[in-house]
UniProtKB/TrEMBL annotation, chains A, B:
InterPro entries registered for this protein in UniProt: Ferritin-like, Ferritin-like_SF, Ferritin_actino
Superkingdom per UniProt: Bacteria
Organism: Nocardia pseudobrasiliensis
Occurrences of domain Ferritin-like (ranges): 38-216
Pfam families: MiaE_2 (PF13794)
Protein name according to UniProt: tRNA-(MS[2]IO[6]A)-hydroxylase MiaE-like protein
């Protein structure tokens, strides 16, 4: 539901509790959400606009990089987002849906997320990439477990682990190791990112019945949704620790 | 020698005179420039920084797009530049050279080219992408004809035709078809792009002996270089006609 969807933090999710077990998502071979569920188009569309908005935010934030090496690393992350966009555009096209029409309802919420979490430093930008990616990966990976295989494959592909997270972890850890005030500042920043992501996710759900139905079908019931958000908070805390924060 | 190196205009080159014949570049099976020529590292490096600077300029210029469709098209062009960068980074690494060290001497000239040709409208940005790419493709394709096969393959790969040029041609043609003042303005803009590209190419050559030697080896002699620049001007005029300009 956030802009960063390059999947940098799927590894971190794997380090914590088992996501499926945590929220009671079914792992039996028959998926509970068929490929023709009307929410699937919404799911692909929100992921697609997430890639586009992440691309442009990364390109913009690269200006904050103190080195050419940092700029190149960010350009590679941004290019990976576009590979994922291509995958989603094709998946939507296969469903007879134009990606631009499908993305339109999600522009406002995702832009609002980015506007409310506009980094003012290079390190804030790095934390946002890693943490935003992680929150998105948590949310969509759990949905994928309940989706028909041909749909789940698309979702997992666009959340696939990249090796960019290593760069980010090193940048942040090195910077905060001996700088307590920077660490405190970035810890607060991380908390704000999670809050804004959940706010915008709830806003999208309230607007899009089909997507809400899909999330309900994936999590089982309202208790399942509460467990999903709790799991996301735990994973977030684990990611912050990996960055040397919190 | 310019920033745009996505290869959009190689097709246009093919439409004109045969490049090899035009400048007397050898087409016999024995390449005249061995793979270990000291200018090859410079060649890969200037191409690599060209991709990075084109990436960030495109991402910046996408703000000028009146539509999300345009922004997405530009993001795809930018992502393609990064694929090419990866190819060049690997090729340099294979020669035991760090891409960042190798690019350093070219940062100033390429940044100067972009600073002196900063588009102020969406159409200027589109013309710059297409025309800049074309000038670069003309120059480097001719060099490739004289290079050892393993080097030529890398150069041709990063100049490979993409289908993005179709988008640009349509955007520009449609805009200038019934707007004469826009057509006149963009025609002057195209002329300026060629002039600035040649100025910066000459600046780079004057600074980098190895690259000058490589270009001399590829073109035969000073007469060959003059013929190369004449060929580039002819191809440029052809590209402008394709855009409905000039």
């Amino acid at each position: 539901m956030t802009g960063g969807t390059g999947g940098a933090a799927t590894r971190v999710v794997g380090m914590g509790v088992n996501p499926s077990a945590a929220v009671g998502v079914s792992t039996e071979s028959t998926p509970r959400i068929p490929a023709d569920h009307s929410g699937v188009t919404d799911l692909f569309a929100v992921l697609a606009y997430g890639e586009i908005s992440a691309f442009y935010r990364l390109a913009e934030e690269a200006k904050l990089s103190p080195t050419l090496r940092g700029k190149v690393a960010v350009a590679k992350m941004a290019a990976a987002e576009m590979d994922h966009f291509d995958t989603l555009e094709q998946a939507l096209s296969g469903r007879g849906v134009d990606v631009f029409d499908a993305m339109a309802p999600f522009v406002r919420a995702l832009d609002a997320y980015h506007d409310s979490t506009d980094p003012s430093t290079w390190l804030e930008s790095m934390v946002k990439f890693y943490v935003g990616d992680g929150i998105a990966a948590d949310f969509y990976t759990l949905l994928a477990d309940a989706l028909a295989p041909e749909v789940a494959t698309v979702v997992r592909d666009v959340l696939a682990e990249t090796n960019h997270s290593e760069f980010v972890i090193e940048e942040v850890r090195r910077a905060v190791e001996e700088n307590r005030s920077e660490r405190d500042r970035l810890t607060l920043w991380g908390r704000r990112l999670l809050g804004e992501a959940i706010t915008q996710a709830q806003y999208v759900m309230a607007q899009r019945d089909e997507l809400t139905e899909l999330v309900l079908a994936a999590t089982g019931d309202l208790t399942g949704i509460a467990a999903l958000f709790e799991h996301m908070q735990n994973s977030h805390a684990e990611r912050m620790r990996v960055l040397g924060l919190g």
